[in-house]
Amino acid sequence: MNSLTILILILVYFAALLLISRLTSKDDSNDTFFKANRNSTWYVVAFGMIGASLSGVTFISVPGWVRDSQFSYMQIVLGYMLGYLVIAYVLIPQYYRLQVTSIYEYLLHRFDSYTHKTGAFFFFVSRVLGAAFRLFLVAMVLQHFVFDAWGVPFEVTVVLSIVLIWIYTHRGGIKTIVWTDTLQTLFMLVAVITAIVIILNRLDWSLLDFLKSQEYANYAKTFFIDDFKDKKFVWKGILGGMFIALSMTGLDQDMMQKNLTCKNAKEAQWNVISLGGVLIFVNFIFLSLGALLFIYATKNGISVPMENGVEKTDLLFPEIAINGGLGVGLGMVFILGLIAAAYSSADSALTSLTTSFCVDFLECNTMEQEKQKKLRKRVHIGVSVALILVIIFFRYVLKENVISSLLQVASYTYGPLLGIFAFGIFTKIKVKGKYVWLVSLISVVMSYLLNAYARVWFSGYQFGYELLIFNGLFTFVGLLLIRKR
Q1: In this predicted structure, what is the pLDDT of residue 359?
Q2: Which residues of the chain have pLDDT under 70?
């Protein structure tokens, strides 16, 4: 499959997104951009959120993680379901009761403007890094398989990717994204299922043959219960997954902004619960694909691609899909799935970051409509530039598997949000708001030190994603120390 074919596919796909954007953005008001007029159908939102939850990281990085971590990721995914239940029955009623545009407005109602802006700041940092991780992965694949052959610099690839996303989101915002995410989820799931079918046929296996094979069993260990000190220990995964879902969905404007477009709280709850159930099944499919990719690579002498002298298991799926001798059809479906995965997370990130910055920092909801619109459009461009710079930075510093890096960073940046929201919901205590940012920063530093020296301090213990819980706990305790007397 040559690079020109890939480029044509990207342009055709982008044309489809532009058509959806045109149909959904005739009204480019702030109410449409920020809230989709609160008129979205819950099951459409739920289906689209599958793609936003998975993103390019799951599409490529989760299958590539199977060699080193087997199916331990399913422990985290099971924890997600517990987190979604808390989101549905604790957080969503709060957000709908207050009729917020940005979920961090809850902190303004519960505490004060200092705490409000601290929460919004940690979301902004978290989502910029998270979106950059996801887009970096996709840009890396496009660079490796398309633009390197034409001598196009990585920086140009990144700029083009962000510009394309900006073009179809700058008018309709979240209303456009609800519908583009639906299309993108469909493409992503079709790509994965097609890849499994084609590889199984090439190996002359049925699905049952594959699942019963010893090769599959070598990768499919799911529950790690032997060593409490191991990062993959089962309860670390489940509890970590629960709090990751709480933080990266329930306390994240990007994910909750889609929920807040539903007509009422009950429909938003159905959306979140159904999403949690479907993600268990879908992530199992992705992990099974990962096992199949490594089995196929071993049988056919395909090496894991190298990037800057380092093995990149994230690139195994694209390597097999495009250069693995499985036909141009798989390559085309893979590219469509990859672009769908990239845009389904990046477009909503761009919109939610714009929303949060306008509402939480610039307080645009106090301005007249025309000024709001002009400000929103300028911020949208500024956020796009910020994402470009961070993605290019990752090109030169990121060494590990992207899904692992993403979840590790989330343990630091979402911890203060977890602690502040928990404190607000489960206590009635007032705090000295001007010190909340300091408490949050100290919590992040303490979490970093705890993770860095855990092996020395606790006889070889390694923190997994339960580090997020401790980070939130540090923040919670710190807020108790700055309570108003």
Answers
A1: 84
A2: 1-2, 25-39, 42, 51-52, 54-57, 170-175, 307-308, 342-345, 398-407
- What do you get for the CA distance between the two ends of the chain, in Å? 69
pLDDT tens digits for range 272-322: 898 888 889 988 998 999 999 999 998 888 888 876 677 777 778 888 888
Residue found under tokens 């690079």: 3
Expressed in percent and rounded to 5, the helix, strand and coil fractions of the chain are: 80, 0, 20
Q: Tell me the CA distances in angstroms from 471 to 3, 115, 240, 411, one per residue in order.
A: 45, 17, 12, 7
Close Cβ partners of 315 (under 8 Å, ≥ 6 residues apart): 60, 64, 140, 141, 144, 304, 305, 307
SS3 63: helix
Task: Measure the CA–CA gap between 95 and 98, rounded to whole angstroms.
Answer: 5
Token pair for residue 119?
A: 């929460």
**Whole-angstrom Cα Rg for the chain:** 22
Could you tell me which residues come within 8 angstroms of residue 355 by beta carbon, excluding any fewer than 6 positions away?
A: 33, 34, 101, 102, 173, 174, 253, 257
At 313 the pLDDT is 79
For residue 463, give the 3-state DSSP assignment. coil
Burial 5-43 (b: 16+ CB within 10 A, else e): ebeebbeebbeebeebbeebbeebbbebbbbbeeebebe
pTM above 0.85, yes or no: no
- Alpha-carbon distance 95 to 101, whole Å? 9
